[in-house]
Specification:
The chain is an alpha/beta fold. It folds into two domains: 2-212 and 242-265, TIM Barrel (Alpha-Beta Barrel), CATH 3.20.20.70; 340-405, no CATH class. It contains 16 helices and eight strands. It has helices at residues 19-24, 32-45, 65-79, 93-101, 125-137, 150-153, 158-171, 194-207, 217-224, 278-285, 299-302, 322-339, 346-349, 355-360, 375-388, 400-405, and strands spanning 2-5, 54-55, 82-86, 104-109, 143-148, 176-181, 213-215, 246-249. The chain has an eight-stranded parallel beta sheet with strand order 7-6-5-4-3-2-1-8. Helix 2 runs parallel beside helix 3 and helix 9 (217-224) packs across helix 12. The structure holds iron/sulfur cluster (SF4) (2 copies). One iron/sulfur cluster is lined by residues 232-233, 237, 239, 242, 244-245, 257, 259-260, 306-308.
Length: 415
């Protein structure tokens, strides 16, 4: 997904991973034509991609209102909707009008509703919360991006943090949440330890019921069940051609996610011309003592995690939150298997298995031993389906029995 990324920000939070990029980024005027050209080019190359480009920062509401409207209009023309991520400190009536006109989903970045919980960000909390409520009143269904730090999600703070989340949901009209591990290059003491991060994730996951759309918990369940359209940190990200985050900067140049690669050293516009799997291929085979992921049961889900949070700040290593990921995956797996003991999940199949394969694993019974399918049989079935891919029409089958019962169904190439 591409994002329109003016790097400048009015808050300049002390932990922001863009501090280095910001220090080195040349101050440049916004080149609206180049940015719109990049949006159109991206759409031409990947028209099937459903996610509209996101206006992201720094703080995108620092853009002149005229430019902001041009970008929203260009994205709306191509995708029929738009999206923005903002700290919600600069919103005024003109923005609300634009958001309604261009069907904008508005994500607000906020780590707590008290100065203590929101220490990593700052800003006028009364104004931010007022703006979130106004988004609700204007039927703009705001979502929250919440970063987990020692200041808000440690064991001692968790109860107040939980109250903040439940308040935002019940009283401010927040419809969905994304919880992200805080990463700081300069002040790693602000981060949660892997154990503390796991505790916070576990408690949030356990709250995630009654249809709550909380990321990354829903996405972890999705991956285990064979659906991999998920958040970037589980996609085996290439730091030199980040595919989930393809920023277009104010001057129209393109680069990588500012969390990693050369961006973390202040070089913004150095992007490889194609994506490589080199980092994940090496991590897959590299022993754990060398900060690789060899033999990890959850490799098909995690693939080493975000290179921006790699051990020692070296993107080649796996994420330093490995312990938190692994324990969280285990916690989720136990929950699913307590309900469906006979199910085989992606990690059982040791691959990013298709949803159809996972679902067929509980064909006969969810729990009876004699109703359990054989994992070898499942793997073979999936391999066979893969080999047949593209050879049959959608809905077609290579099953001889099905063919016998449906002789009328056309084969590819036959009228
Ligand atoms: S560096 Fe991390 S945050 Fe950035 S796109 Fe890659 S996985 Fe996502
Ligand atoms: S959980 Fe840890 S070892 Fe397993 S894939 Fe993720 S980072 Fe690698």
């Amino acid at each position: 997904m591409i994002s329109i990324k003016p790097v400048e920000c009015n808050l300049r939070c002390p932990n922001c991973y863009e501090l280095v990029a910001r220090a080195f980024a040349p101050a440049s005027r916004c080149d609206a034509d180049k940015i719109i050209g990049a949006i159109k080019e991206f759409h031409k190359k990947s028209p099937e991609r459903g996610h509209p480009p996101c206006l992201h920062g720094g703080e995108p509401l620092m853009l002149p209102i005229g430019d902001l409207e041009k970008f929203l209009a260009a994205i709306f023309d191509l995708y029929g909707r738009t999206s923005i991520q903002t700290n919600a400190t600069l919103l005024d009536s003109r923005h609300f009008e634009l958001f309604k006109k261009y069907k904008t989903s508005v994500g607000v970045s906020l780590d707590g509703d008290t100065p203590e919980l929101n220490r990593s960000r700052g800003g006028d909390l009364a104004a931010i919360i007022g703006n979130i409520k106004r988004l609700r009143d204007e039927a703009l269904a705001p979502s929250l991006l919440v970063t987990l730090w020692a200041a808000n999600a440690s064991a001692e703070k968790f109860e107040s943090f939980k109250d903040f989340i439940l308040r935002a949901e019940a009283s401010w009209g927040v419809s969905s949440f994304r919880f992200l591990e805080g990463v700081s290059y300069e002040r790693q003491e602000m981060e949660l330890s892997p154990d503390a991060l796991f505790e916070a994730h576990k408690r949030l996951f356990d709250l995630c019921d009654s249809g709550r759309r909380w990321s990354p918990y829903r996405e972890i369940v999705d991956m285990m069940l064979g659906n991999f359209d998920v958040v970037c940190v589980f996609q085996g990200c290439d730091p030199w051609a980040t595919s989930s985050e393809q920023p277009v900067f104010a001057d129209g140049s393109q680069g990588n996610c500012l969390r990693t690669g050369a961006s973390a050293d202040g070089v913004l516009s150095l992007r490889a011309d194609r994506e490589s799997k080199l980092r994940s291929d090496v991590l897959h085979d590299l022993g754990q003592r060398w900060r690789g992921c060899k033999h990890c049961r959850y490799w098909p889900l995690c693939m080493g995690g975000c290179p921006g949070s790699a051990f020692s700040g070296d993107w080649r290593n796996k994420t330093r939150f490995c312990g938190a990921h692994r324990n969280l995956f285990w916690h989720v797996e136990k929950k699913i298997k307590s309900l469906f003991p006979n199910i085989y999940l992606s990690q059982d199949l040791k691959k990013r298995a298709a949803a159809a394969t996972i679902l067929s694993s509980i064909e006969r019974s969810t729990y009876k031993f004699e109703g359990r399918r054989n994992i070898k049989e499942l793997r073979e079935k999936e391999e066979k389906a893969k080999a047949q891919a593209g050879k049959f029409y959608h809905g077609d089958s290579d099953d001889p029995e099905w063919r016998r019962q449906n002789p009328w169904w056309p084969r590819r190439g036959k009228k």
